[in-house]
Fold these 4 entries.
Entry 1:
Amino acid sequence: MEKPLATVACLTFNHKKYIRQTIEGFLMQQTDFPIEIIIHDDNSTDGTTQIVQEYADQYPELIFPIFQRENQYSKGKKPLINFVFPQAKGKYIALCEGDDYWNDPLKLQKQVEFLEANPDYVISYHNAMIVDEVGNIVDYSKLPENLKKDLSSEELIQGTMILTLTMCFRNVLKDFPDEFFKVYNG
């Protein structure tokens, strides 16, 4: 497979009700560049693992699962840092947890194009809606008004809230500074 320009990184644990919609949101992405999808299942016990395996079997050149035999988060491990980021081949990483989903087929294309055109930016993010378990819109905006702007490097370091499922950032960190473990977002 051609080296991916973007890696989709997904953490999941007992998300059986949601993981299909999450993965379908990844598969619907329309990009003019190659992507890879890494799904880390942290020893789910509800059938999530089997669903992820089903998709990985169906898309072996696109979906790369990491299955844990013991829950790593409960052992104090950071699954993104310890297991997913070291495997990510993309120049960019987009995050989406297993109980969230994307509904815009051009999400990755738009964010990667923006980052490619703006080398002084390290991250792109956007707003998101809140929906309930059956898909009813609870709120059209999860992002507070004061955060609908470009964030400075100082605001990023301070850990200003960014919605995890909306992040797409440059895959540049190999060593993680202490500040990383103090921010709200993974």
Entry 2:
Amino acid sequence: EIGSKLSRSAMLESILFPSAGISHDYEHWTALTVDGVLYSGIIVSETDSMLEIKDAEAVVHAIPKQDLEEKRQQKLSLMANDLHQQLTEQELADLVEYLMTLKKIRQ
């Protein structure tokens, strides 16, 4: 639905500067367990007893709260800061145009 939310210029800006404005529910979090395992991603669910965090590969990790040492929100987006440097100008323009087609379907 991103094409319904942003203008073309805002879409381009979000690709160039992904950490400038991170949408609610897409904040980057890290979770450290008492065993020293570090998880990084988006929180998909949290209860009194469990934290579920989805990593960059879309794998959801269920962490029992009793095993959680620390949970911290990060200031940087999960999206790569230099993505645009890996694309040609045409590829970047094509990406923006594609993302603009992703609109909410009205029912």
Entry 3:
Amino acid sequence: LKIYDASGRLVRDLSRFILCGGRGFFSHIIWHGDNDLGHKVLPGVYFICLRVGDDVITDKVIKVE
């Protein structure tokens, strides 16, 4: 799971926090609006990209404060 800013730059890599599991497995990740250095990022549009095997899921989020 990686978070990118609107210009496509990697902001945060949360891959190390994802747990692998089998059928019925559920997990969630909370992004606190910080980058990989621990600094808060500015409000704006960000893109979340999750790669699972050959599948890629992308969604847009808006950070408001």
Entry 4:
Amino acid sequence: MRQSLALAMLSVLLGTVAPAGQQSVPAPDPLTQALTAVQTAIATNRRDAFHALCAPQLSDMDSLGFELSLFGPDVTAATVRERDREVVAGGSRVLAEFLINRNGAGQIATWQISFTLATGVPRISGLHQVSSVTGLHRLELDTSTAFKVNNFVFTATDFQLSMPSGTAFIAKTAEGTTA
């Protein structure tokens, strides 16, 4: 009797433990999945996919402000990073940063997103923009134009660059030479 009980307990234990060398994968976090779905909706300019993530109580003004700020046919990439999370009555509030690439011009925006969890599935119930920076550019040196430099000194607030001699190049954006 004791042996059969011990064997039964052993088989239960062995059935719940992952074999050596294998790690159990934690269940995906629903809020992280929701943010990933928002990222995909922005990157593919699928407003309908974004609307599917929204709760009925999300105001049209909040939704429209979010869409006008982050969506568009010129979006070539989008990245969303969660920065903070707070559990509130009926759901959670997430502080998220969005990096949006629009054909080489960048935007970083921070949004506070409220989620309801009434149905067990997170739905966006509130959107509030905290900050936004636009006009960011990925700079590349234009090596087709070179300048010979001698005794060059550039001074700005809390910064000084000195170059006794060398070669300088420029970097351009759509607006013109920037560096």
